[in-house]
C-alpha cells in the first residue's frame, strides 16, 4: 500500500515561491503516477499537475509557467515548485497517487477515482 505525506505549505506574500513535497512510501510507489490537486475554501478539488512513472508531465494550462512538477525517484518524492504566487492560489494542496497517469488531468473524476491521497498541506498567499 502506497502512503503519501505532503509538506512545504505555509503563509507567504504574493509574488513569493514555495516548493511542496510529497514523500511516497510503499513497494509499488515508483510505478505510480503522482499528482497535485488543490481545494480552495468552498470550492471543489481541482487538478494542478501530474507526473507519470516514467517522467511525463501534465500541468493545467492556467498554471503553466508558474507551477512545475518534478520527481526524485531515489527519494520517492514528488515536488511542486510554485512561483509568482497569487492570493487566488490559496488552498489546501493534496498529493495523489494512482497506477494510471491518464486519470490525472483537468478531467479527473473525483477523489474516489484516484487510489491514494495525502492529508494535504495548506498554502496561504496574502496580498
Characterise this structure.
With 127 residues, the protein is mostly beta strands. It is built from no helices and 11 strands. Strands 2, 4, 5, 6, 9, 10 and 11 form a 7-stranded mixed sheet that branches. A 4-stranded antiparallel sheet has the order 1-3-8-7, with no helix packed on it. The protein starts with a strand and ends with a strand.
Give a brief outline of the structure.
With 127 residues, this protein is mainly beta. The chain is built from no helices and eleven strands. A hairpin with a 5-residue loop joins β5 (46-51) and β6 (57-59).
N-to-C CA distance:
40 Å
Low-confidence stretches are: none
- The average pLDDT value, as a whole number, equals 94
Could you state the order of secondary-structure elements as H and E?
EEEEEEEEEEE
Give a count of the beta strands, DSSP E runs of length 2 or more: 11
Number of helices: 0
- Give the proportion of residues in helices: under 10%
Q: Based on helices, strands and strand pairing, what is the structural class? A: mainly beta
Broad shape: globular
Beta-strand portion reads over 45%
Radius of gyration of CA atoms, rounded to a whole number: 13 Å
Largest sheet: 7 strands, mixed
Write the layout of secondary structure elements.
Elements: E1 3-7, E2 10-13, E3 18-25, E4 33-39, E5 46-51, E6 57-59, E7 67-72, E8 77-82, E9 91-98, E10 116-117, E11 121-126
Parallel strand pairs: 2-11
Antiparallel strand pairs: 1-3, 3-8, 4-5, 4-9, 5-6, 7-8, 9-10, 9-11
